[in-house]
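Notes to self, Citrate lyase alpha chain:
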Amino acid sequence: MKNKVGVEISENVLKQYGYQPFAGTKIGHLISQRVAPAVHVMAGPSKVATSLADVVKNNVRDGMTISFHHHLREGDMVFNQVMQLIIDEGIKDLTLAPSSLTNVMNDMVIKAIKAGTVTHITSSGMRGSLGDAVSHGLLPNPVIFRSHGGRARAIETGKIKIDVAFLGVPNADEMGNANGMTGDAAFGSLGYALMDARYADKVVLLTDNIVDYPNTPASINQTQVDYVVKVDQVGDPDLIGSGATRFTKDPKELKIAQMVNSVITHSPYFKNGFSFQTGSGGAALAVTRYLRQAMIDQKIKASFALGGITKPTTDLLDEGLVKKVMDVQDFDKGAADSMHKNPAQQEIDSSWYADPFNKGAMVSKLDVVILSALQIDTDFNVNVLTGSDGVIRGAIGGHQDAATAKLTIISAPLVRGRLATIVPKMTSITTPGDSIDVVATELGIAINPARQDLVKQLSHIPGVPVYTIQELQQKAADIVGQPVPIQYIDRPVALAEYRDGTLIDVIHQVQE
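result:
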């Protein structure tokens, strides 16, 4: 059958993996019961373990689900330590359920798959050598990709049942009170890890900085923690950004940022009290700078900024241009340092951020969001998971979640190298087109015809040409030509959920 975005999904896949096909972005009134973790009474004055090896040996068993967070991104030094010990113990058939997977983890995950230690993965995304290996059939079972809000939903409802969570933190006391704000490895918000701490049956904190009891403020508290393990180094916070938060000098990216800024400032949502999420990356950071100047010029202040936070956003907070920053993750050390200093920068967990099954997620209050894309099709559907070669090389992240804003803008170049960004048919669909309002490229913008209000308001902005999405697609094709169709094997290697848990796409194995 075909789901709402026209993806053909076999009845066998739906039945085997227990899915309903994606039926649309409108999520109705749902009642779902939250699960609760097991309670393990930990008596005694200290939870500090003698060694990480003992914790692994005594708590991880075949067939379990284990989790990690990705707040340290490429600077993470916890994941590989834990996974090597698990492999050495000969443990098999684990489900790996991190909030996301970064390149620094790839070699170890591939090693664990080849050893039979990991047979299932659920994550926000994957890239590099791991994405390539999974796309070519290395993992025996399909990866399940979920948005950040979708992961929170799955944890809260028991779709993901975490047996042991291994959480790196830059500080903790002997009972497990911890936060992400102080210490050599400080990375700011613990937003994704908070879900694991709250719902995992066992929680193991790894830190290089055991501090005096009681450690406050505590994002993770002692009622949730089973073990505290001292390690040599949790991570390198200087590698959190890894180039993602660079200030661009690329003329194309600056032109796109100018287009985006013009769309925002000429929209009906640019007014006192508006809310926004801009994200990281060269063009997104440039948008933040342009938006700052527009706010100063027009004397406009925002009520809150949301999402993964960068220093340019916290600078707006310091300048009084933004009243609150709602922070689920920090993308650079500057934003992490700001959380420690400014009480108006509020740490939030991923449920508060984006879970569609709770009593009110922050994304539902967004006015404006700027998102990126690997591909966009002529129905405004967006792909952020697979490249033009069909290989997994991205992450859903908060893409689907934040696309619920009143004005959702996709910023992307018309072509990347010799590859078109706007295409007739994509390699996979991550976010449905009826969530997307405007696509902004260096040549101009396309407005979703479903938003006739925006067509009227944005069609005459000085210096911003307006095209149909079909016209932009043709311009891209004129530059790079038509791609050769990718050959797939009829075997699912990944299942992409929509944020409500329905199946939006099936990613098949790429033919050698």
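- The chain has two domains: 59-239, 251-487.
- Residues 282-298 form the longest helix (17 residues).
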